[in-house]
Amino acid sequence: MIQVKNITYKIGKKELVKDLSFEVKSGELLAVLGANGAGKSTLMKLLCREISPVYGNILLRGQDLKQYKLPELARQRAVLAQQNTISISFIVSELVMMGRYPHFEHQPGPHDAEVVKKVMEQTGITHLSGRDYNTLSGGEQQRVQLSRILAQIYDCPDACLFLDEPTNGLDLLYQQQVMELARRLADSGYCVICILHDINFASRFADQILMLKDGQKVALGTPLEVINCENIHETFSINVKLMACEGYNCPLVIPATIQT
Ligand SMILES: Nc1ncnc2c1ncn2[C@@H]1O[C@H](COP(=O)(O)OP(=O)(O)OP(=O)(O)O)[C@@H](O)[C@H]1O
User: Looking at ligand 1, which residue's alpha carbon is closest to its atom 30?
Assistant: First the structure.
């Protein structure tokens, strides 16, 4: 579905992403892990064509991302950005309807209204439908934005979903719900790429994990292949302990005390 081939992105002489290659198929969830400043959001911007690689290329369904017309791209991939501040006032249902903009010319039709209703049910925000977005809590706003992007790709069952820290600002219940939703979307055929800070969420929900440091790949593979003390130390500069837990395939990761 999406193939990343030897991409490098530079600003001046600084390489933010260096010679990175990976592939995510339809039905898979790739989690991207890395310390602050590792290049995760830069990678996300490259994947959604907000910026272009200096070297290498990105193929979506076998076609170079650069060749897509924007409306076509908007119907095949959706992006949940890290910052979702909106300066003007919007009613929640209007904001979710924005996800449908690539699908109608002037006025939304009954199908668009139905999609908006369905995705708001899926993300548990139906009760917020008539509220002003700017009066919502950070976690509520995050779920509204998630609904908007689900509405965008609702009709394309194998679309790509790029999620930049989707659990940011959510309480434990909603973090779990968002990750379960991301997993279900992958299981139903979407190609999901998700930046996460929580290693345990990554190992529990992802098919593959990409670990980044200074824009370069530290490890890429299944959670069982890459979640180990060495890779985590290399990626996050912290010692951890791994603990087996009943019902989990992968060991839980527990940070060791940092001596000061
Ligand atoms: N426009 C820019 N000009 C210069 N440096 C930049 C620019 N954008 C990003 N960087 C730098 O590139 C590096 C990677 O940034 P990026 O936002 O991709 O990291 P990240 O892994 O998403 O970090 P975080 O976990 O903190 O969100 C950082 O050192 C950042 O300061």
Answer: 37
Report the predicted TM-score, pTM, of the whole model to 2 decimal places.
Answer: 0.90
What residue segments make up the domains of the chain, in order of their start?
Answer: 2-226
C-alpha to C-alpha distance for 127 and 92, rounded to whole angstroms: 10
Atom of ligand 1 nearest to the CA of 42: 18
> Whose Cα sits closest to atom 20 in ligand 1?
37
CA–CA gap between residue 236 and residue 238 (Å, rounded): 5
Please state the atom number of ligand 1 nearest to the C-alpha of residue 195: 22
With respect to CATH, is domain 2-226 assigned 1.10.3110.10?
no
Q: How far is the CA of 162 from the centre of ligand 1 (A)?
A: 17
Residue 9 Cα to ligand 1 middle (Å) = 11
Residues 133, 95 contacting (CB under 8 angstroms): yes
Task: Say what the ipTM of the complex is.
Answer: 0.96
Q: Compute, in angstroms, the gap from residue 39 CA to the centroid of ligand 1.
A: 6
State the alpha helices, DSSP H only, in the chain.
Answer: 40-47, 70-76, 92-97, 110-122, 138-152, 172-187, 199-205, 223-226, 229-236
What is the distance, to the nearest Å, from the Cα of residue 144 to the centroid of all Cα atoms in its chain? 15
pLDDT for 198-251, tens place per residue?
Answer: 999 999 999 999 999 999 999 999 999 999 999 999 999 999 999 988 888 888
With vertex at residue 50, the alpha carbon angle to CA 44 and CA 179, rounded to the nearest 5 degrees, is 30
What spacing in Å lies between the alpha carbon of 36 and ligand 1's midpoint?
A: 8
